[in-house]
Amino acid sequence: MIKVCVCDDDELIANKISSIIDSLAEEKNIKIKKDVYYSGSAMVRGIENSNSYYDLIFLDIEMEDIDGIEAAKRLRLRDELANIIYVTSYQNYAIETFAVRPYQFVLKPFEDEVIEKHFMDVYERVLSDSEECFKFKFCNVHYKVLLKDIMYFESCKRSIIIHLSDGTKYKFYGKINNVENMLIDSKSDFLRIHQSILVNLKFIRIKRFSDIQLMNGTILQISENKRNIVNQQYVKHVEESMKDERNS
């Protein structure tokens, strides 16, 4: 499934984009969840009052109440990964939109094929393994981070700390058991090496009997009762990685 938002204060344009997406999704047998807004303020309210995220947003820039640039800034406070495609009549907004990292621009008037191409490009990205995300909430702000960037989860009292490969840390309230269950069906390999540690196997540089060293030098202890299973899973992971390299 791909979650799509269309926002344009010109109802004809918004409905045209919506119709193009519906037709393409039906033709390609793609499941979509779509919201259409006719003002920037309506979109902002919808995003701020909802627990859901969008994969793709078609967003007008020139709107009377809240323009597309301000709307995107508010979006980025809770969602770093949504693919924003600006739909505009002007070409001189590149600098103003830099801070919200738009995916593409579409100039009005546009052909159906342009919307179709961008929709399919984003859909392919959403399906790719690299775009798997972990979603969480902290202090009424919703976040999502790429699983491929997470080195490990650490349980500390009633909180979970997410350690990313670039040194960034996020925190939210939760239990490590619940996080582990959420990752069971993911394509990333996470392994519980300790009661309070869930590590991404691809970031292990060195595995020893009682600890591991990650790519950034961090050393994490393996609890005694998990040493056998950690060794088995790590060996399996290495063998599968080598097999993939030989077949590539």
Short structural description:
The protein is of the alpha/beta class and about 250 residues long. Helices cover about 30% and strands about 30% of the residues.
Name the features.
single chain, 248 residues, alpha/beta, five-stranded parallel sheet, elongated
Please trace the helix and strand order, writing H or E for each element: EHEHEHEEHEEEEEHEEEEEH
Taking all Cα atoms into account, the compactness measure Rg is: 21 Å
Helix content: 25-40%
Distance between the termini: 28 Å
Number of strands: 15
Report the sheet-strand fraction: 25-35%
Q: Can you offer a commentary on this structure?
A:
Helix content is 32%, strand content 31%. It is built from 6 helices and 15 strands. Helix 1 crosses helix 4.
